[in-house]
Amino acid sequence: MNTKLFVGNLSFNTTENDLQDAFAAHGTVVEANLMVDRTTGRPRGFGFVTMSTPEEAQKAIDALNGAALDGRNLTVNIARPREERPATSGRNRY
Q: Is residue 85 part of a domain?
């Protein structure tokens, strides 16, 4: 089992520290990242948290999936590898 978790349905007011604090109650947080829009710099409403062991990752999923954080019910599950997207050159996209 992977130790990297996808965290979705985050409030745009949630910070990486908020995320780390929420998950730290269920084990050691190795890393917490919020995804932001490259253009605007605004949060995209999801992020990733890496726990130190698969057991801690499962514990965090069990405790936090559906739990409220900043007024939003979280979606927490094992992060899947990003799917490869075909490269586009910017031409012939219509």
A: no
